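User: quick one, fold this
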Amino acid sequence: QVPFVESGGGTVQIGGSLRLSCVGSGRTFSDSYVAWFRQAPNKKREFVARISNAGWTTDYADSVKGRFTISRDNANNVAYLQMNSLRPDDTAVYYCSYVEVGTRQPFGSWGQGTQVTVSS
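Assistant:
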């Protein structure tokens, strides 16, 4: 069983917005740090954003700071990524993962992800 199922991707114009969701399973969601990662064509998977177990602390890659917001709903085992002011270089498959506490290091298997395409 994969730990997360991602959804909410799509095609959007430059400057548009999308809200991604991922539903967690496989361990106690509310006890775990959760992060979003992305992988663009022919590039390595990279960190996007992280949120602490209770949602009090967040961390963002410099490339998305001020444009993306990570949040979570522990009652429903869901993490969100609100993406605003989208740019072509945000085009990628987006994935959720559990990460080690206080780090950007993912562990466990990856889900299928959700495709985000930003077009002009």
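User: anything notable?
Assistant: The chain has a mean pLDDT of 94.
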